[in-house]
Fold this protein.
Amino acid sequence: MATVQPISPKASFGYIPCFDGARCLAILMVFLSHLEFTPYIPGGFGVTVFFFISGLLITRLLLAEFKKRGDIKLPEFYLRRFFRLMPAMIFMIIATSVVYIAVWGRTIPFSEYASALLYYKNYFRYAAALGNGGYPTSVWGITWSLSIEEHFYLLFPAALILMGPLSKRAMYVFSALVVLPLILRVMYWDLIPYPAVYNYLATDARMDSILIGCCLALYAEHIPFEKLNKYLGAPWMFWASVAGIAATLLYREPFFQECVRYSVEQLFLVVIFFQIIYTPNHRWIAGILEWNAMRFIGRISYSIYLWHMFCLEVAHRYCTTLPGTIVVATSMTAVLACLSYFLIEMPFVNLRKRFGSHADKVEITPTQVLHASADGTDPTGEANPRTPQSVMVNKG
């Protein structure tokens, strides 16, 4: 296995392969959780990991844009987001609607389309839970997490600009705001019906999972690496954080699970991601995350996320055994996710680049990815932003 070097803590453009590996683990947790293994696989934690990575990566890119251009162009940011997310989601909604209506004879209210396409599915699902005994059923309900991200990114880039992307004021303010959703979750526990559902789905109750990733990018930009490494970089802290996350998943007391757990998990994620991407610690873990198979699954994780619940519904309808359900759902999800990625997502890369995206449009087949060299470069050819000289080796 090639030696995997840490990346520079300072924000820059470039592909970070281990992020795709982490997305792979996150989407596998979500998929397996829904595939009959909910009691054993923490799908909700997989979503938390997605949120954390999103905040860390997008803040890093926004800071890099500001350092390169002297400003952050909000219209271009929102257009990049639109062309990154919306084409694949529209494709999924149209295709599944054909099956729901023409094949299964299902009626889909306009409100289901609107809540998905206008990104308020999370609150729509909570409203559905109020009228359905606490069970938040909804067509395309999986888009609830996309709603949280889009609500968050409607506000965060503008707030970052107002406070000054390269000023420490932004770091202090956002760090303080991380506590707000925890306070709200505790308040909601006794104030609203079905608080566990609301605390899981609502933007105001879950935005800290994205914001803490943003804060790590700001810490890495503004705080000297030696100081950060002193408090976050001890190797034992990594394993303590892994054990801590396991403990949060095993401790099933309802108030802790639905109010406190999210905050505790994201603090542990700060340590884990700091050490994996910024320090020489645990290089073998970073190396595993950069395996080509994991990177490929991470690359198509958005399409997997969009399609897997529909594929599970198909499998449940037509399969009478658990093995059959697993095979059909997994196979369908893999095929449809690849079609969505290569036929829908990839053609929009050049259009996104017109609005400032640094993604490269290079067609990659699964075979090419699996056989590409794991040398720290992106299969698309984009350089990996690694500067090992900037990283101090931890002696602890």
